[in-house]
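Annex B, item 7. Sequence and structure tokens for protein A, then protein B.
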Amino acid sequence: METTTIDARGLSCPQPVVETKRVLDKISGGRVEVLVDTVTSRENVLRFGANKGWKGSFEPEGAGFKVVLEK
């Protein structure tokens, strides 16, 4: 499965969701990893992915989080 990585660290909301939407609009499935550095961004990206039918999870990544969306 191909993995697409989005580095949204340092971006304030709603930019991480906008970047995630840009990628999800182009693909029908796979694995997308979104790097974020705030809990708010993590939760917003997870919620957006779930609303689009993607299964979401996250793990700590440095000082932030890696949100993983899979479909």
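Protein B:
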Amino acid sequence: MKIFLKILSSIFVVSILVACGDKASPDGGTLPPHGDTDQNQQQPSDPQLPETEMLDILFIGNSFTMDAVTHLPGMIEAAGIDGVNMIHMYYGGRLVQQYNSGWKTSSDYDAYEYASGQNSWTVTKGKTLEQVASSRSWDIVTIQEHTGSKFAWTWDATERAHFKQLVKKIKDTQAKDPLVYYILSQAYHDNAQIGSGSASAITWTDHVGMWDVVAAFGMKVMEDVEFDGIISTGAMLENLRTTSLNNELGLTRDGYHMDYGLARYGASCAVFEALISPVYDIFLDGNTYRYNNSGTGTTPVTDANAPIALEAARNALEHPFTITDMSSK
């Protein structure tokens, strides 16, 4: 049965969410209040995809994108959804400027692929972004910057050019423009994990201060580049850090990558409900997928904490640049 694909604004996806408080901006002012739809909810006005039996999604990103997509196959299987195909072009630590400059030449990516009916990712190597982008008609493509780099802290003409050129290259491979989303990733729990090449540019003392800088950058991205929407996995993590589930590692496994379990689960919730739910009209309430592993850097996903992570994700979709106080959870 064919499905008429229509990606709705994520503010409709998360209409049940609670109100949130404002956060300070990097320059000492305040980030836009949550009710300010011009700044805080930069979503498209019902962009539409053609009628199709399949939903094909290409993720371009590094390990922070891996944090956001790892649990999607399990969620899709538990939801009983057929027809979703995904590829994540992964290279650790890579920047948007490197995705762009190496578009035709960099073949060192791991291409993680999920085909409809599978329950996990498989990996192949040796393909460039151009080859994979040209390999099929994509319905959705996502791009994600490396937030641990100084290049993701200051928006300038060079960054703008790389973003715009990359979006154009993606669209030039397609007969019909795909929807292109920006994934806004996380702030570090531990500043010491930021590489030496960027450490001198640190202007904050904790993860909340870093989030203010990352969020301000994300606002500029959405103002200046023709993205169809934003998925703020970074806001999801900050929201989750306000709950009783936060831990001594700030829900990371190493001070900066998301916890293998609950944090990654929340990030995948945000991606699922932003990109997949509006297409199939299936949401994650009652989804039975769980991640039971435990150990250092891994919080098991349980029936008790999964709804909290989902709420953190929905708050992030509604308010991508601000932290929602979930301290009652």
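Comment on protein B: The two ends are 41 Å apart (CA to CA).
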